[in-house]
Amino acid sequence: MVLNTYKNRIINASQGQLLVITYELLIEAVDQALKCIKQEELPDKAMFSYNISQAQKYLKELTNGLDMSYDISVSLITLYIYTNQLLVNASIQCTSQPLLEVKKLLSILLKGWNQVASQEKEQQPIMENTQKIYAGLTYSKETLNEIIVEDGQNRGIQA
Description:
This protein has helices at residues 2-5, 7-11, 15-38, 45-64, 71-93, 97-119, and strands spanning 132-139, 144-151. The protein has six helices and two strands, in the order H-H-H-H-H-H-E-E. By secondary structure, the protein is mostly helical. The protein has one domain (2-119): Flagellar protein FliS (Four Helix Bundle (Hemerythrin (Met), subunit A)). The chain has a two-stranded antiparallel sheet. The protein is 62% helix and 10% strand.
């Protein structure tokens, strides 16, 4: 699952970084749908439909997160509705052209949100009291070892 590769980033992310991750996951779902279409002999329609539905779920998450008291939210919801229409068209027609347009649009938005997230003040991660993971390499004359140390203290919810 793609989400597993984002697990550590999500755990340690601020609000802006979570938004960027959601965009990245949405673009990844569109990329996977494009791969399904590009299979020349037998396009995998089941995986194509799955990836389109995943993209729509991420898009819905972005839409639900909008605060409509800001003017930019009105513009963003319009773009999200348009993007969803393109996803529906791609799903019905089973063609790549609407997906390429979705990817282009989302890439522009992702670039902007990356800039916003990078200017965010240093914030604590959204998820508190989570497991910390430290990774490193050790080596001897004959071997190279990867070590992952998980800090098991204070896991879960503190009462």
